[in-house]
């Protein structure tokens, strides 16, 4: 787990090759489940136990007659079964609910009566080293089990298959001296952290009455616990922590964990911007913003960042994981995965209810996506917005979904800050040891409503009567420390008063605070910037490559190692590629793409391509990975190139989670071309939240530029409603403020240039490409060698393939994508020599100026038609029509308006009937050409 071969796929790798055992098995999960009685004690052989008891009795000098030994063995078997059940189910009787409202009487099989041990509390029993004891009494054993497994921390771990992981957790719980223990100074630090959390919320409530803050009130034990993650993580090799969390408690984390200056947050509460006035952007509410900082514990500095995110629950999870993976690559930490730690903070209802939680968990351990384990912290308020747990999930705990990846789960009472801090310390130790996900489920409460203006007693009157009578975390903890002699009475008031005085100073400073720097082009983003020119400008950049680079790539892409047996069909594909490079003609889409990837790698950039079938390509067009037909070894030609890194990954069957992961990767690494490819473009709507909330608006809201590329197969070829449309109209509706680039490209060379342009420009914008299906092999969709070299670069509009003099053009048909070839073939067949077809290759930013220039030369122009395959209410018509009219006016054709040729408006994106599709396609082509 977590140690897959790296080098972004070496030339030969069996990273995803045959593995022993069933196909679904993960490496590290195939360990034998047989174990000693110190771990799994549910199937003890009576004879073996009798012999063990006899030997132990003899060694201890006890009576050893056969009858006594047999009786002792039976008692030991009953005792060991009791131990087993406490390890499996003890958490169900743990003291977890601070409010005492949950019905947790505990299973009957945790009682001595159930095991036939009632009345035998004083009898000695042999337990063979369990809980650090050889011989003990039944009563002491039972008491110790309840102390270990039914206290303020309940451990769920026996669902884990790996023996060593279970033993590690058992030892941390069962060995004396390994459980919750803190020095007096440590206890004082925990109290101070809790008081900072409480005091901060109280101060905000006093200064900003009625303002939403989504306070942590009731869950303040999280503050010292997260500090423990930093401290113990740092001592275990962590040098960077990447956090993701929703709005509950976020302001408290920003201030008291991330050390964002209080004055800055107070400035934002007063309506001020987090960035200088001249930066622009829409900004966002204060409890969505992120920050980054460095904190030091015990002389070890740890860099921390909190990723900004919207209100959409749990969406930030895969973004954090992707950013973590990128940072691990940047730090050369992909093998050990020790230096960069992801920490995700969840709400209980959201963790149980949101599907992206599982999509993110399922990436755990998957090659190309594994981050070496994530620490998940659930703020379990025992309520959603107004929804009680029994309506929010069908399982006992919100954390139950994490069992699917065999993550250990530490349920902990949020009224005991020492227990919560211990749980986080243990979680970090486990993650750093085994590089697996781990979950802390902190049971607490929400002192106020969903927001501070909400009335929770509408729906939970009993709970909120109990909450209003319940003391704060610090009050109970102070009493405990006073009783232990750690602090003097009144210490809590003294600490709180000192902290409030500090906040008052910061509050006054916040009134005059002015941000002087925008936080977005530092670190690895140094050298990049906002575009200097307007979105309508060409923004040209040299993207052609040298002939020697072209030829070198040709050899890499066509040479088959002598000891590799490729599929016979792939062999024919490679033969065709050799002919392309030999003749300099007929380069197809996949070859142009490989040339773009390879040339960027040779220039020192990274290239990361991810999707459900990206290695081969959905349409068997790419073949970035060659598989030996006998051994299933994988050969990745582009990974043999020097300077940069190329990696291609077949992802889990997820759109939402994987697209978020790749967005996070691109967020961290602007020096890698990061591409996510949908199996079909239609499936991108499963990731619509990521598109709306991050890709389209992240830069405007949070000043977070991103160069992610989305490849969305799109085109009407009679494959039905779900295999035709990538929903171009939805992306165009989201386009504004120069936020992204949307293309529908028709030639391999133009695709090559747009991919290279993505990295060679001095800024980053998301790029959405309506990638082709039939054009992958269309005889007219070919490029020549010369198209990749010299002064060639990306063309936002492409003229007709037929040379028609501008002054002769009477009818201009504008279009985008595959339909252009249908139009040109039909036009040529009909002999129409006054109809020109111009392709809009980049729809946003719309190329209005070059289009106007092109149309200004058409002095005899009488008709302009927009033709599209999509229904009228889909596609680009509603976006492009107005912009075409503006270009016509600029070209001197004032008063001329484009007309529409395409399918009628439809609720379904496409028909599923081949005959109807053909008729519709012929009709729209004829209408566009005036046939």
TrEMBL record:
Annotated PANTHER family: 2-OXOADIPATE DEHYDROGENASE COMPLEX COMPONENT E1 (PTHR23152:SF4), 2-OXOGLUTARATE DEHYDROGENASE (PTHR23152)
Region listing for Disordered, in residue ranges: 1-25, 895-914
Highest taxon of the lineage: Bacteria
GO CC entries: cytosol; oxoglutarate dehydrogenase complex
Keyword Chloroplast included in the entry's annotation: no
Protein name: 2-oxoglutarate dehydrogenase E1 component
Record-level Gene Ontology MF annotations: oxoglutarate dehydrogenase (succinyl-transferring) activity; thiamine pyrophosphate binding
SUPFAM superfamilies linked: Thiamin diphosphate-binding fold (THDP-binding)
InterPro entries assigned: 2oxoglutarate_DH_E1, DH_E1, KGD_C_sf, ODO-1/KGD_C, THDP-binding, Transketolase-like_Pyr-bd
Alphabetic keyword roster: Glycolysis, Oxidoreductase, Thiamine pyrophosphate
One GO biological process term: tricarboxylic acid cycle
EC number: 1.2.4.2
Cofactors (names): thiamine diphosphate
Transketolase-like pyrimidine-binding domain ranges (all copies): 587-778
Function summary: E1 component of the 2-oxoglutarate dehydrogenase (OGDH) complex which catalyzes the decarboxylation of 2-oxoglutarate, the first step in the conversion of 2-oxoglutarate to succinyl-CoA and CO(2).
Binding partners and assembly: Homodimer. Part of the 2-oxoglutarate dehydrogenase (OGDH) complex composed of E1 (2-oxoglutarate dehydrogenase), E2 (dihydrolipoamide succinyltransferase) and E3 (dihydrolipoamide dehydrogenase); the complex contains multiple copies of the three enzymatic components (E1, E2 and E3).
């Amino acid at each position: 787990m977590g140690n897959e071969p790296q080098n972004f796929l070496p030339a030969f790798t069996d990273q995803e090759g045959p593995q022993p055992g069933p196909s679904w098995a993960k490496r590290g999960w195939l360990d034998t489940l047989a174990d000693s009685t110190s771990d799994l004690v549910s199937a003890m052989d009576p004879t073996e136990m009798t012999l063990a008891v006899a030997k132990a009795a003899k060694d201890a000098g006890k009576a050893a007659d056969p009858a006594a030994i047999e009786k002792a063995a039976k008692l030991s078997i009953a005792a060991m079964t009791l131990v087993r059940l406490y390890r499996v189910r003890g958490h169900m009787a743990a003291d977890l609910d601070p409010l005492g409202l949950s019905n947790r009487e505990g299973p009957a099989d945790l009682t001595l009566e159930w095991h036939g041990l009632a009345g035998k509390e004083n009898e000695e029993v042999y337990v063979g080293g369990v809980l650090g004891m050889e011989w003990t009494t039944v009563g002491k054993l039972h008491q110790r089990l309840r102390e270990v497994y039914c206290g303020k921390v309940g451990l769920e771990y026996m669902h884990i298959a790996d023996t060593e992981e279970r033993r590690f957790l058992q030892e941390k719980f069962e060995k004396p001296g390994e459980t919750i223990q803190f020095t007096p100074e440590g206890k004082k630090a925990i109290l101070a952290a809790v008081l900072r959390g409480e005091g901060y919320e109280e101060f905000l409530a006093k200064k900003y009455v009625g303002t939403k803050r989504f306070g942590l009130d009731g869950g303040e034990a999280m503050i010292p616990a997260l500090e423990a993650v930093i401290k113990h993580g740092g001592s275990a090799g962590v040098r960077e922590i990447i956090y993701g969390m929703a709005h509950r408690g976020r302001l408290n984390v920003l201030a008291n964990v991330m050390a964002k200056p209080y004055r800055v947050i107070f400035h934002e509460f007063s309506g001020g911007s987090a960035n200088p006035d001249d930066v622009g952007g829409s900004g966002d509410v204060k409890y969505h913003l992120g920050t980054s900082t460095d904190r030091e514990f015990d002389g070890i500095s740890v860099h921390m960042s909190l990723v900004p995110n919207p209100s959409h629950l749990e969406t930030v999870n895969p973004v954090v994981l992707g950013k973590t993976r990128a940072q691990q690559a940047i730090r050369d930490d992909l093998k050990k995965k020790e230096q960069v730690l992801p920490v995700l903070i969840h709400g209980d209802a959201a963790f149980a209810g949101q599907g992206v939680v599982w999509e993110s968990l399922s990436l755990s351990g998957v090659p190309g996506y594994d981050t070496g384990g994530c620490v998940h912290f659930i703020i379990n308020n025992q309520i959603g917005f107004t929804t009680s747990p029994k309506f929010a999930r069908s399982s006992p705990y919100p954390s139950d979904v994490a069992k699917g990846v065999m993550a250990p789960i530490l349920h902990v009472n949020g009224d005991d800050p020492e227990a919560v801090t211990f749980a986080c310390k243990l979680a970090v130790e486990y993650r750093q040891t085994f590089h697996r996900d781990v979950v802390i489920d902190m049971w607490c409460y929400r002192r106020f409503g969903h927001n501070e203006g909400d009335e929770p007693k509408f729906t939970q009157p009993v709970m909120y009567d109990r909450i209003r009578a319940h003391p704060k975390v610090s009050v109970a903890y102070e009493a405990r420390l006073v009783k232990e002699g750690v602090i003097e009475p009144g210490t809590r008031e003294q600490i709180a008063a000192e902290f409030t005085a500090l906040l008052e100073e910061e509050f006054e400073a916040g009134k005059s605070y002015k941000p002087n720097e925008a936080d977005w082009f530092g670190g690895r983003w140094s050298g990049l910037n906002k575009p200097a020119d307007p979105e309508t400008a060409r923004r040209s950049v040299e993207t052609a490559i040298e002939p020697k680079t072209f030829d070198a790539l040709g050899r890499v892409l066509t040479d088959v190692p002598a000891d590799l047996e490729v599929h016979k069909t792939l062999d024919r594909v490679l033969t065709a590629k050799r002919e392309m490079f030999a003749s300099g003609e007929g380069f197809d889409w996949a070859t142009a793409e490989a040339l773009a990837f390879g040339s960027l790698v040779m220039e020192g950039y990274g290239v990361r391509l991810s999707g459900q079938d990206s290695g081969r390509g959905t349409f068997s067009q790419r073949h970035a990975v060659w598989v030996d037909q006998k051994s299933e070894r994988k050969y990745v030609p582009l990974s043999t190139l020097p300077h940069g890194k190329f990696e291609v990954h077949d992802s889990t069957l997820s759109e939402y989670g994987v697209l978020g992961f790749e967005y996070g990767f691109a967020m961290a690494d602007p020096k890698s071309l990061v591409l996510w490819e949908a199996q079909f473009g239609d499936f991108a709507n499963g990731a619509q939240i990521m598109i709306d909330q991050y890709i389209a608006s992240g830069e405007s809201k949070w000043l977070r530029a991103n160069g992610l590329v989305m490849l969305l197969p799109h085109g009407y070829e009679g494959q039905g409603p779900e295999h035709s449309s990538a929903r171009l109209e939805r992306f165009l509706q989201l386009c504004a403020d120069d936020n992204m680039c949307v293309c529908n490209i028709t030639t391999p060379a133009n695709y090559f240039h747009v991919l290279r342009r993505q990295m060679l420009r001095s800024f980053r914008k998301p790029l959405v490409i309506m990638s082709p299906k039939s054009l992958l092999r269309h005889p007219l969709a070919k490029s020549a060698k010369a198209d990749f070299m010299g002064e060639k670069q990306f063309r936002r509009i492409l003229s007709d393939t037929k040379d028609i003099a501008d002054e002769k053009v009477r009818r201009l048909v504008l279009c985008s994508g595959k339909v252009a070839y249908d139009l040109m073939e039909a036009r040529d067949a009909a002999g129409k020599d006054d109809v020109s077809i111009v392709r809009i290759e980049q729809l946003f930013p719309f190329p209005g100026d070059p289009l106007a220039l092109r149309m200004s030369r058409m002095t005899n122009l009488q008709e302009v038609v927009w033709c599209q395959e999509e229904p009228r209410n889909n596609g680009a018509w509603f976006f492009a029509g107005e912009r075409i009219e503006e270009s016509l006016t600029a070209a001197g054709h004032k008063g001329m308006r484009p007309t529409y040729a395409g399918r009628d408006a439809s609720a379904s994106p496409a028909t599923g009937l081949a005959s109807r599709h053909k008729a519709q396609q012929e009709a729209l082509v004829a209408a566009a050409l005036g046939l």
